[in-house]
Specification:
Helix content is about 15%, strand content about 45%. The protein has helices at about 5-15, 70, and strands spanning about 5, 25-30, 35-45, 55, 60-65, 75-80, 85-90, 95-100, 105. The strands form three sheets. It has a four-stranded mixed beta sheet with strand order 3-2-5-4. The protein has a single domain, classed as Hypothetical Protein Aq_1857, Chain: A (Sandwich). The chain is mostly beta strands.
């Protein structure tokens, strides 16, 4: 499914700790943008559905909905610091094109 890169563990744990009732991060893909798809990360408060995949590793729980699994297969969630910018990024081998602004992507 997806893996959590070493650089992402500490930032994820900090984010989860800032939300006292939060049980994990829901990761998904939604239809948006000029290339068609965008990643979504949201806090989850225990809502896990029958077809969801739950990944629990080193204090981090990630929940992935059924529709997003194919788009995320083989991806790695990393945390990057580039100049003044920092944040989570998906390294996704399924992406065949991205929009110029980097907000959305396309998978054939």
């Amino acid at each position: 499914m997806i893996t959590i890169g070493e650089s992402a563990y500490e930032p994820l744990i900090r984010k989860l700790a800032s939300q006292p009732d939060c049980e994990g991060i829901r990761v998904g893909v939604r239809t948006v943008g000029c290339s068609g798809l965008a990643y979504v990360l949201e806090y989850t408060y225990g809502e896990v559905y029958r077809d969801d995949t739950v990944i629990a590793d080193r204090g981090v729980t990630i929940v992935i909905d059924e529709k997003s699994k194919n788009y995320l297969a083989g991806s790695e969630l990393v945390y990057l610091k580039e100049g003044l910018n920092e944040g989570f990024k998906f390294v996704n081998p399924n992406v065949t094109a991205e929009c110029g602004c980097g907000e959305s992507f396309y998978v054939e």
